[in-house]
Amino acid sequence: MEISKPTLMVDLKKVERNINRMADKFREKNIAFRPHFKTHQSNFIGEYFKKAGVDKCTVSSLGMAEYFAANGWQDICIAFPANVLEINRMNDLSKRVQLQILVDSVEKVQLLAAGISANTNLFIEIDTGYFRSGILYDAVAEIEKIMHTIEAFPQFKFVGFLSHTGNTYTQQSPSEISTLFNESRQKLIDLKKRFLPRFPNLILSMGDTPAASIVNDYSGIDEMRPGNFVFYDSMQYFLGSCTLNEIAVVVYCPVVAKYPERNQLVIYGGGVHLSKEKLTRNGKAIYGLVSKPNSTGFGELIPGSFVESLSQEHGIIYMPEAEMKQIQLGDLLAVYPVHSCMTVDLNKQMLSLEGLQIPKYRTY
């Protein structure tokens, strides 16, 4: 297997273990598992989920929903504010699969009703404090108006409240993640109690990898939708969501220049391959962790080394002098991305450690 340029590498054994562990966790807790497929974006990886008994999924765009529907997925949630400019395509897809879409206003429901005639499930997206999208959890009167509007259209079915606690990614420890998740969970439970007499089948859907990996108490939640766990990444490692050995994707990058006098080397691998997502540790910006691949996998982390800056094609790695002496021009280094979802999206395909080319959906 010859690699001469930045290449997204995947360890399929780790992928399968990550999937089975998460599927088993929620099966044991009797919670529906609707994993988010925006991380891997691949029908090939999707088959591992089917093998684990998963029969429903979450996606982040209508195009992605169409991609997975073409491979047999029949129960799909688009966990993104419904785009009214895509009404005709949503209507067409709803005729072929059980589609869940998100609304957060009376206006959105009315606009969708004008173009969708097929039976479609609607979640009301609830904002529990992330402040990205969704109606605030305490806007009870407005939430009730949205529910009444949904009931007015026979093609629509109100199925429940959906929320993404993405602010768990900003927490500093597993205990902080658990606390934030539990606070958000309780807000949804309180909201559900108000409307359960009218909607006895109303479900609560949550989903983020830190909470799905760390938390043990999901009481009151009916469905979980984590996605990043399939690959994990450096961010999840520092959050405590995973171990280093559970990170299943890296980008192999050739070493193209060395500057021992400044403890830096340059790799062919920049923002267009890794994204410019970063995290901060001890006051330093980190764009990825670094290891030296070996015959069995990604190899061990190189002590004291990390990607400290990125431009379009260049990656600048800080490396202590002793470790740099072991690196030669033309060597491949493995960069553990900060955010695997973004990194995977940037690459056209993945390559397994066995040399298998794995195609994927391209968002753009």
Protein topology:
Elements lengths: L6 E4 L1 H17 L3 E2 L9 H9 L5 E3 L2 H8 L5 E7 L5 H8 L3 E6 L2 H8 L6 E8 L7 E2 L3 H12 L4 E7 L11 H22 L7 E4 L2 H6 L8 E2 L9 H6 L9 E11 L4 E5 L2 H4 L4 E3 L2 E3 L1 E4 L9 E10 L3 E5 L2 H4 L7 E6 L2 H7 L2 E4 L4 E3 L5
Parallel strand pairs: 1-19, 2-10, 3-4, 4-5, 5-6, 6-7, 6-8, 8-9, 9-10
Antiparallel strand pairs: 1-11, 11-12, 11-18, 12-17, 13-14, 15-16, 15-18, 16-17, 19-20
In short:
The chain has helices at 12-28, 43-51, 62-69, 87-94, 106-113, 140-151, 174-195, 209-214, 234-239, 271-274, 321-324, 340-346, and strands spanning 7-10, 32-33, 57-59, 75-81, 98-103, 120-127, 135-136, 156-162, 203-206, 223-224, 249-259, 264-268, 279-281, 284-286, 288-291, 301-310, 314-318, 332-337, 349-352, 357-359. By secondary structure, it is of the alpha/beta class.
Any descriptors?
single chain, 364 residues, alpha/beta, TIM Barrel, Lyase, Ornithine Decarboxylase, Chain A, domain 1, 2 domains, nine-stranded parallel β-sheet, six-stranded antiparallel barrel, 12 helices
